[in-house]
Amino acid sequence: MLSPAQLAGLIDHTLLKPEATADDILRLCREAHENAFCSVCVNPVWVAHAAAELHGTPVKVCSVAGFPLGATLTAVKADETRRVIELGAQEVDMVLNLGALKSGDRELVRADIAAVANVCRQQQVLCKVILETCLLTHDEKIIACQLCVETGAHFVKTSTGFSTGGATAEDIRLMAAQVKAAGLGVKASGGIRTLADARAMLDAGATRLGVSAGVKILTEARGAAR
Amino acid sequence: MLSPAQLAGLIDHTLLKPEATADDILRLCREAHENAFCSVCVNPVWVAHAAAELHGTPVKVCSVAGFPLGATLTAVKADETRRVIELGAQEVDMVLNLGALKSGDRELVRADIAAVANVCRQQQVLCKVILETCLLTHDEKIIACQLCVETGAHFVKTSTGFSTGGATAEDIRLMAAQVKAAGLGVKASGGIRTLADARAMLDAGATRLGVSAGVKILTEARGAAR
Predict the structure, then answer these.
(1) Which of A12, B22, B103, B225 has the maximal Cβ count within 10 Å?
(2) Which residue among A76, A84, A162 places its CB closest to the CB of B79?
(3) Helix (H, G, I), strand (E, B) or coil at A209
(4) Which domain CATH number covers B127?
(5) How many domains does chain B have?
(6) Tens digit of each residue's pLDDT (9 = 90 or more) over A152-203
(7) CA terminus-to-terminus distance, chain B
(8) Which of A19, A43, A98 sits opposite B102 (nearest CB)?
(9) Does the model's pTM come out above 0.80?
C-alpha cells in the first residue's frame, strides 16, 4: 500500500475546464505545492502563469496538445508542444488522431504521435499520449499502444475527461500489458473521484493519475493511513 | 418564410466528432453538395479531404481553430487558421479565450480574436468567433460581441456543441442586437435538431446555422413547403 506522500507524487492535479480563471489556476498551483503533487495539468493559455507560480518548487507544469479532440493538424500539435515547453511545461499530454485511427490510417497516427514525441524528447520533456479509450475498440486500443511504444512516447493515457467516459481498470490492465515491458508509463484519467477509484487504477497498473479531485483523494488517504 | 433552398444556403453541415472517419467526411460532403448547403464544417485533419471532394462545387469548407476549448495560445490559433486556409478552408470558426474573458482580461481576448481575424481577412476567408454562450454571463456575452465587432470578425457564433448547452433564441437576440448594426452575422449552433429549432433561431436573428441534422431539417422543410 502506498503512503499518502507516495500517492501524492503520482497525481497530476488537473484543471482543464475552459472557463477556469487566473484565480482558479493560482489555487490549483498552491494546492499542488501544499500537497506535493507531481504536477499541475493546465491548458496552454495558463502554462506561463502556472510556471511562474510554481517556480522554485518541485511541482511540474503539465500541459496539453491537440486537446481534447486530437483532430487538429500534426504540425499544429507539434508547434503547440514547442510553445508550451518554451513557456515552462515539463510534460505534454497530446491527443492522438482518433479519426485517422478509426479510418485505418496507422501511418498518419504514427507520424502524428512521433512529431510531438520528438519535440518532447529534444527538450527532455515527458510525452503522454491520450487514447480516449471510451471511443476505441479493443483492437484500436492495442494498435494505439503499439504506436506509442514505436514512436518513443513516455506514457499512454486513457482519457481527456471531455468525452463519453473515463478510465476503467480493464483498460488500464490492457494498456499496461501492451506498454510496460517497453518502459512506458500508464496514466489513468477521467472519472477518478475517490481514494477507492485511485487505488483501483494503481492496482490495475496505472503509474500516474490525472485527477481534479486530488485534494479530496489525498485527504481520504491521510485519514485511511491514521 | 424562407424556401427550402434558401434555408439550405444558410446551413453549415457539421461533423466535428473526433471519431469521425474518412468515409463519414465523404458522406458529409456528398450530402452538402446534394442539398446545396453553404458549407461543410470539419476538423482541421479533414480539411484537405473535404476540399478535394468538394472541388468544383459551390459548397465551401469551414474548419475550426482552438476548438472546442479556446484555451490554447493565440499564436497556435493563428497558425492553425493559416494552415487550414492553405489546405482549402474558406471559413474558420475560432473559439475565444474563455478563461481570459472570465478573468477580466479583455485585452488578451481582443488580441486572440484579432490574430485569427487578421489571418482570415488577409486571405479573404470568413472568421466566426464562438462565444460558448452556455458558459458566459449576460455581461460577458455583450463584452465578447463588442470585441468581435472591434476586431473585424465576420460572425459571432453561439456554441461549440461540446459544452453544457447550445444556442437559445434569447442569446441569438442578444448577440444580433450587439453586432448586426456593424454588419456581422450571427451563427446559431448546438442543439438545433428540427425545422422548428432552425426557424426559431432565424426568427431571433440568426443568419447562419451550424447543424449536424441538416439533411433531416431540410427534408422537413421540403415537406412543409409542399
Answers:
(1) A12
(2) A76
(3) strand
(4) 3.20.20.70
(5) 1
(6) 999 999 999 999 999 999 999 999 999 999 999 999 999 999 999 999 999 9
(7) 13
(8) A19
(9) yes
